[in-house]
Specification:
This protein is of the alpha+beta class. It is built from 14 helices and six strands. It has a four-stranded antiparallel sheet. Strands 1-4 form a two-stranded antiparallel ribbon. Helix 7 packs antiparallel against helix 9 and helix 12 packs antiparallel against helix 13.
């Protein structure tokens, strides 16, 4: 199943990713070489983000987000102290409640591996609330005996950290196995790795690494990619881009027909046949035939076609 010990990079990675004794941080560094061979920038960016940590919460994949418990220490008259008391976040103002309702793990994989080792020794870890938020929350979570909130935190559990590490390992394993399905020769030949079609690699990345969600469907990164890859009135660049985000050949042929039938259209306006095609693609997203989220599909199609029409 895994090829020879001295087989291709894919074979080596398959063997190591199922070995719990090999740190996922080491595996990702080797996978970065694979991303370079496959010439897939998004795969490489994901690996870089996992290794170095994520720059912002907006870029975090779902498997790095958790609904936490919030605990606090309350202090009152005569030296009274109440520790590890659950904070009722529903009583908090919106700006604090949004912060309290999610644990966002932006740390790099190596730091998460260290955290997992520390938690295995029963050493508690926590995300501390900033002092300013504690002060703002104080008047909203009073205790009956006059105790006030003096510190707050979100406990970090071993299951949360282990869950992130397992998700990264499992998604990379699935990606490698699907790569083998595309061309079994990738287990033996570096040349076969480099010859895997880029659109198929992109499809695997979007459907497996990010669980079917196109993470570049909104924001500047997505707009820049469309701008770079889709040229005005260039049908082939439009088709190549839509193929890279998972649309099948039949759907793309239907789009080419719809564009021809509509003829010339004013800039940023779609003809009735293209509009009908868009509706059909959204239905495919709804029933799972096109593996992107329903909320993402309209943005993907609108941005690409708007760029095409100028």
């Amino acid at each position: 199943m895994f090829g020879k010990d001295k087989g291709s990079l894919v074979a080596q990675l398959q063997k190591e990713v199922v070995d719990s004794g090999v740190p996922i941080s080491d595996i990702l560094r080797k996978a970065k070489i694979l991303a370079s061979q496959l010439k897939n920038k998004e795969f490489k960016r994901w690996i870089d983000a996992e290794l170095r940590g994520y720059d912002s919460a907006d870029a975090l994949p779902d498997y790095r987000k958790f609904a936490p418990l919030n605990l606090g220490t309350f202090s009152g008259p005569f030296g009274r102290v109440v520790k590890n008391f659950p904070i009722p976040v529903a009583l908090l103002p919106d700006i604090i409640r949004e912060f309290a309702e999610s644990n966002l793990f932006t740390l790099g994989i190596k730091e998460l591996e260290s955290s997992a080792a520390q938690l295995a020794k029963n050493d508690g870890l926590r995300f501390a609330w900033p002092p300013e938020m504690v002060m703002l929350a104080r008047e909203h979570v009073p205790m009956a005996d006059g105790c006030v909130l003096v510190e707050a935190w979100k406990p970090i559990t071993k299951s949360q950290v282990d869950g992130i590490l397992d998700q990264v390992r499992n998604r990379l394993l699935d990606f490698l196995l699907e790569l083998q399905e595309i061309d079994p020769e990738v287990l033996e030949s570096e040349g076969a790795i480099r010859s895997v079609p880029s659109d198929k690699v992109q499809y695997l990345f979007q459907t497996i690494i990010h669980g079917g969600q196109n993470v570049v469907a909104t924001g500047t990164e997505f707009t820049q990619r469309v701008t770079q890859e889709v040229a005005t009135r260039d049908t082939q660049s439009l088709i190549a881009y839509l193929r890279s985000i998972g649309l099948d050949n039949d759907s793309l042929s239907e789009l080419e027909t719809a564009i021809d039938q509509d003829g010339d259209q004013p800039q940023e306006q779609f003809g009735k046949n293209v509009k009908s095609w868009i509706a059909k693609m959204i239905m495919k997203a709804m029933d799972g035939t096109w593996q992107v989220t329903l909320s993402t599909a309209p943005a993907l199609l609108k941005e690409a076609l708007t760029r095409y029409y100028g």
